[in-house]
C-alpha cells in the first residue's frame, strides 16, 4: 500500500495536492493524525496536516512552539522521537499537553526531524490514541515506512518550492548496502555485524562510508536517504 502511495505522491504538482496526499496518508498509515511542517532557510513555512483548524489557531495564538517538547527536542536531535520519552513534567507543558489531548491530537506521537539543503528544517509526525504497548509495537513495526515516507514528502515539498530537487545518484558498495540494509531491518550493530560475519569496527567503517556518500547527518538519516533513493531492497 505504501508503494502505491509513494507513486501517487511523486505525481503531485502543487502544494494543494501535496496537502491532500498528506491527509490521505492518515488512512494509509492507520493513525489519527499526520503532520508535515517545513521551514526553509529564509524562514518561509509550509504545513500540511490533519489537526483541527481550531487547534492549529490556538497553537499559533499561544505561540506553543516555545514550550512544545516535541518541537524543542526535534530542533536538537536527529533521530526519530517517541513523545512518551520526552519530559512533560513542567506545569506549562502539562497544561499544553492536556489542551492538545482535549483537541483530539492523541495521547501518543512519533516525530521525525528532517534537515534538508540550505538550512531547511522539517518535521513529520504521526499521532493517535493507543496504549503504550500497542503504540510501541506500531512504531517498531512501521519505523522504516515512517522514515521513508517522511523523506519522500519532504523531497516533494522541496521540489515544488524550488522547481526541482533532483539529487545525483549515489553508488554504494555491496558491503555498504548490506550494512545499511541490516540497520533498516531494525538490526542493532552487533546483530548486523554478526549476520554479515564481520566485526563491529568493520561494520562501522562501511556505515560511515555510506553516510559520507549520502551526505547524511547521521546513521538514521543515511538509512532514510538510501531507502528514498531506492538503494536498499527490504
From TrEMBL:
Molecular functions (GO terms): DNA binding
Domain named HTH luxR-type: residues: 165-230
GO biological process, one term: regulation of DNA-templated transcription
Alphabetized Gene3D superfamilies for the sequence: Transcription factor LuxR-like, autoinducer-binding domain (3.30.450.80), Winged helix-like DNA-binding domain superfamily/Winged helix DNA-binding domain (1.10.10.10)
Keywords per UniProt: DNA-binding, Transcription, Transcription regulation
The keyword Transferase belongs to this UniProt entry's keyword annotation: no
Highest rank taxon of the organism: Bacteria
The protein's name: HTH-type quorum sensing-dependent transcriptional regulator VjbR
Species the sequence originates in: Boseongicola aestuarii
Lineage: Bacteria, Pseudomonadati, Pseudomonadota, Alphaproteobacteria, Rhodobacterales
Amino acid at each position: 500500500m505504501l508503494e502505491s502511495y509513494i507513486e501517487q505522491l511523486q505525481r503531485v504538482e502543487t502544494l494543494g495536492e501535496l496537502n491532500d496526499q498528506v491527509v490521505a496518508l492518515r488512512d494509509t498509515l492507520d493513525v489519527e493524525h499526520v503532520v508535515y511542517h517545513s521551514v526553509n532557510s529564509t524562514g518561509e513555512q509550509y504545513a500540511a496536516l490533519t489537526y483541527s483548524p481550531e487547534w492549529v489557531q490556538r497553537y499559533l495564538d499561544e505561540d506553543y512552539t516555545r514550550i512544545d517538547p516535541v518541537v524543542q527536542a526535534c530542533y536538537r536531535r536527529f533521530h526519530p522521537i517517541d513523545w512518551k520519552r520526552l519530559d512533560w513534567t513542567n506545569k506549562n507543558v502539562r497544561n499544553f499537553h492536556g489542551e492538545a489531548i482535549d483537541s483530539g491530537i492523541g495521547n501518543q506521537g512519533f516525530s521525525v526531524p528532517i534537515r534538508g539543503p540550505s538550512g531547511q528544517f522539517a518535521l513529520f509526525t504521526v499521532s493517535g490514541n493507543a496504549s503504550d504497548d500497542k503504540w510501541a509495537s506500531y512504531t517498531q513495526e512501521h519505523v522504516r515506512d515512517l522514515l521513508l515516507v517522511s523523506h519522500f514528502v519532504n523531497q516533494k515539498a522541496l521540489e515544488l518550492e524550488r522547481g526541482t530537487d533532483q539529487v545525483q545518484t549515489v553508488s554504494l558498495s555491496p558491503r555498504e548496502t548490506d550494512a545499511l540494509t541490516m540497520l533498516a531491518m531494525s538490526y542493532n550493530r552487533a546483530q548486523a555485524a554478526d549476520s554479515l560475519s564481520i566485526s563491529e569496527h568493520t561494520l562501522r567503517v562501511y556505515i560511515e562510508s555510506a553516510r559520507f556518500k549520502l551526505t547524511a547527518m547521521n546513521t538514521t538519516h543515511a538509512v532514510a536517504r538510501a531507502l528514498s533513493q531506492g538503494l536498499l531492497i527490504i
